[in-house]
Amino acid sequence: MKTLMLGNEAVARGLYEAGCAFVSSYPGTPSTEITEAIAKYPEVYAEWAPNEKVAMESAFGACLAGKRSFCGMKHVGLNVAADPLFTISYTGVNAGMVIAVADDAGMHSSQNEQDSRHYAMAAKLPMLEPADSAEALEMAQLAYDLSEQFDTAVLLKMCTRVAHSQSVVEPGERITPPEKPYEKNGAKYIMMPGNAKRRHPVVEERTKALIAWAETASINRIEAGRDKSVGIITSSTSYQYVKEALGDTYPVMKLGMIWPMPEQKIRDFAAGVEQLVVVEELDGFIEAHCRSLGLVVRGKELFSCIDELNQNIVAEKLGKAPDVGMKLSDPIPPRPPVMCAGCPHRGLFYTLNKLKLTVLGDIGCYTLGAVAPLSAIDTTICMGASVSGLHGFNKASGGETEGKTVGVIGDSTFMHSGVTGLINIAYNESNSTVIILDNSITGMTGHQQNPTTGYNLKGDPCTKIDLESLCRSVGIRRVRVVDPYDLKQCEEAVKEELSAAEPSVIISRRPCALLKYVKHKAPLIARADKCVGCKACMKIGCPAISVADGKARVDNTLCVGCGVCQQLCRFDALEAPQA
């Protein structure tokens, strides 16, 4: 029966129907739902790994053992997994292996715009790129066939608009392929230089074979158009924009395999049109390929390499009147992202701001500590960079910054890549203070479990990593836990650890306010007769607090009674309700 599915759900369904048996991923928007969805199928083993490198290596081990495997990640996660990626290209696979990477053009929830197609070219791996949910299901299945036919891992590239939009799919039945027995083959799987030298030519020959396959593959199709003055080559969500804006006005070549691309098929298509135009998001990847074939093409001179495309941009750049849609006559006030009411990170960031510290930040919902009025973060680079960067910052300063600089990192991010930075601090003896923001969950990507929560992907109890013991075991002697709702305790802890003459870790521990099991107190009451309008309560940036007519107000639909604002009010204008 046909049904609507998110693109990510459709990928999961395709993996399931293709007989995938092992899944290991690290959550990262916009890829997260693939693994969450496939974990619901009891026939598939699925897990969250501590990071993307571990996930990819685990998936490779599973395919080596003879089971079809999968790992998924967002674009910056592929950076973390790049080390095994490039060498897996040399080894090839046993059973099929599929790697999904979801790009985030427009940076809806990412620290950069990155075009993952370059990884396919650089690692010399095939990459499929669906344009809707139906293709996502189909290409997830096709990826396994290609993986086993050409002895290679296959990349499946999603993007935010395809991953998080719904379209019609028709689910099928699961087909479990016969298990492929593992056979020792050192020349294929042991990538020491002598063997690797002999594997590189295999990779180059595989690429030639894939190009030949791409020439006739149905996923690289040509759609006729009325006006041959322009021919458009496109893929992914850009294809949807082209069809919505232009319909069948111009001939379109829609690429489903984005690497390697066909050569003669593109030349033939170009020969049938007067002008060749490439419509693609971010870099001129297809455009560069066309130029390498000696074709005259227009692309990035029309379409920016910055931000997402849309239907109006495509129409306008190709000489059609854009459909601008409806607009509101009244201006809409800006709504910058803020931490949730009752967020456990708020009190800690207020303290860091109050002490005027330099704060090296990391990737997570706590990155919002950079936003006014908290304004408590100086840098955000990548997962784990706060800890490593703190070490370098303090070492380079010759000790001058040690008492006024900290690094902050979430519990999941610490397990992902922060612990190695902490080992570096202990090993190379920098007097640095790391604050682990332990909210008992992976918050930013939607409440996924991690190695510190005591539960696995399916919600079953499992081994729980003890952060205090872990920090001590790598050589940090000063480890303490604070409650971020207690501002006095936070300030005392930060001052004491910064004044100590050795490395230290502060664990700011309180569960995320949005977790279902967290029981909140009753909303506070703002007493207008006691409020003097000093706005001290506004310094924490809580969305439950506002000021109207010079008096503080509390939104009782948002307030969770955490009491942080009460500690700032010298006039007792914020009260807990009487029992």
Account of the protein in words:
This protein starts with a strand and ends with a strand. Helix 1 runs parallel beside helix 7 and helix 16 (385-396) runs parallel beside helix 17 (411-427). The chain has 19 helices and 23 strands. It is globular, with a radius of gyration of 27 Å. The strands form six sheets. The chain has a seven-stranded mixed beta sheet with strand order 3-2-4-5-7-6-12. Strands 9-11-10-13-14 form a five-stranded mixed beta sheet, with helices on both faces. It is of the alpha/beta class and 579 residues long.
Spell out the blueprint of helices and strands.
Elements: E1 3-6, H1 7-17, E2 22-25, H2 32-38, E3 45-48, H3 52-64, E4 69-74, H4 75-80, H5 82-91, E5 97-103, H6 117-123, E6 127-128, H7 133-149, E7 154-159, H8 160-163, E8 166-169, H9 186-189, H10 193-216, E9 221-223, E10 231-235, H11 236-246, E11 252-255, E12 257-259, H12 264-271, E13 276-279, H13 285-292, E14 297-298, H14 311-317, H15 345-354, E15 358-360, H16 385-396, E16 405-410, H17 411-427, E17 433-438, H18 467-473, E18 478-482, H19 487-499, E19 504-509, E20 525-526, E21 545-548, E22 551-554, E23 574-575
Parallel strand pairs: 2-3, 2-4, 4-5, 5-7, 6-7, 10-11, 10-13, 13-14, 15-16, 16-17, 17-19, 18-19
Antiparallel strand pairs: 1-8, 6-12, 9-11, 20-23, 21-22
Helix pairs in contact: 1-2, 1-7, 3-5, 11-14, 15-19, 16-17
